[in-house]
Amino acid sequence: MPLPETSRFQFASGLSICHVLNGMWQVSGAHGRIDPERAVDAMFGYHDAGFTSWDLADHYGPAEDLIGRFRQRFVAERGAERLGDIQACTKWVPHPGPMTRRVVEDAVTVSLRRMQVGSLDLLQFHWWDYGDRRYLDALKHLADLRDEGKIRHVALTNFDTEHLGIIVDAGIKIVSNQVQYSIVDRRPDTKMAAIRSSIAGRTRRWRHSVSSTASHC
After folding, report:
1. Of 77, 91, 118, nearest in space to 213 by CA
2. Among 4, 49, 197, 206, whose Cα sits 20 to 30 Å from the Cα of 29?
3. Which domain covers residue 192, as residue numbers?
4. Looking at residue 180, which CATH number applies to its domain?
């Protein structure tokens, strides 16, 4: 039985996703051997049940490669015209250091190749060291790559409220900040919710730009 329409929402312009995403963290290691063909079989099962949205990362082992395999088989069995039924939200988590255009573009190119896509649906960026402000350089280059069509939407993952504000004040357009949020961990309801409301109040452009999202496993 297909999921009801209420199981999906408009996450960003041109990107509708499921409220529940298929998290691919488990393929990053320490969970046993992964048979790629069986993994792709399982991905078809989730997709056909209506869970068409995937949360992954460049460092989740073969996660991006599995999306590529899934898409390749999907085209062979169902046609390229239906590839839009799949939403793949990846992450880029670089080691802090120089963030030149070349460094950033090379990383995006690797994800494009592994996932076998012409443009990334959503790239969520994380930075380990707030003392190194070159995360702003990386985000500015990601924004340029978005404007050039290599990325559809730029987002963040696990940025705190202070640095989220710095990024927004730098004029970098993001669509979300994926953070830990559940019935037992409501921390984003304090400061982060306030900055979201503040941004929305200043300009309509940011009305849906910063949100807490849960993707999961």
Report:
1. 91
2. 49
3. 5-213
4. 3.20.20.100
Question: What digits encode the pLDDT tens for the residues 8-53?
Answer: 999 999 999 999 999 999 999 888 889 999 999 999 999 999 999 9
Q: What is the pLDDT of residues 132-162, one digit of tens each?
A: 999 999 999 999 999 999 999 999 999 999 9
- If one counts the domains in the chain, the total is 1
Cα 126–Cα 128–Cα 129 angle in degrees, nearest 5: 125
Q: Which two tokens stand for residue 94?
A: 């670089």
The residue to which tokens 């995006």 are assigned? 108
> Dihedral sign, CA of 10, 16, 22, 28?
negative
Asked whether 94 and 138 are in contact (CB, 8 A), the reply is yes
The pTM of this model reads 0.88
- H or E element that contains 88: strand 87-92
